[in-house]
Amino acid sequence: MVISAIAQANVQPAEATVAPSPKLVKAAHEFEALLLQNWLEKMNHSFPGDNSSLDAAHDTVSSLGTQAIATALAARGGVGIAKMILRQLAAKGPHAETGQIKGNMDSHGSAVPG
């Protein structure tokens, strides 16, 4: 009876994973927002019409608007890039969570075989 209770306590679902750190989640969403912003800007420039603005303020406001849309889209799930990044990093194990690379780091931040 005691052994079966211990065995059941040690059994974890196959899909139980450690929740990613808030910093990692934020970075994944910011990366997706940058991609979306780039795509939206390219899409905006592909429309026929007055693509060549002579007003720098118009270009700045347009860029800020595109950035706000991309950030809002990414925060609400975007196209799923942030989710895929988090899933891939979670599959790499606990070192992906802390951003450590297998091996040691030298003083310049490059990997040194350990």
In short, what is this structure?
By secondary structure, the chain is mainly alpha-helical. The protein is 61% helix and 4% strand.
Task: Describe this entry's structure for a reader.
The chain has 114 residues and is mostly helical. The protein has a domain of 71 residues. 61% of the residues lie in helices and 4% in strands. Strands 1-2 form a two-stranded antiparallel sheet. A hairpin with a 5-residue loop joins β1 and β2. The longest helix has 25 residues. The C terminus is likely disordered.
Counting H and I runs of at least 4 residues, what is the number of helices? 5
Q: Beta fraction of the residues?
A: under 5%
Q: Which class of secondary structure composition applies to the elements? A: mainly alpha
- Walk across the major sheet and give the strand order: 1-2
Radius of gyration: 22 Å
Q: Tell me the distance between the termini.
A: 46 Å
- Spell the H/E element sequence: HHHHHEE
Biggest sheet details? 2 strands, antiparallel
- Outline type: elongated
| Helicity level | 55-70%
Q: Can you tell me the residue ranges where pLDDT is under 50 for at least 5 consecutive residues?
A: 10-14, 100-114
Number of strands: 2
Q: How confident overall, as mean pLDDT?
A: 73
What are the SSEs and their pairings?
Layout: H1 2-10, H2 22-46, H3 56-75, H4 81-91, H5 94-98, E1 104-105, E2 111-112
Antiparallel strand pairs: 1-2
Helix pairs in contact: 2-3, 2-4
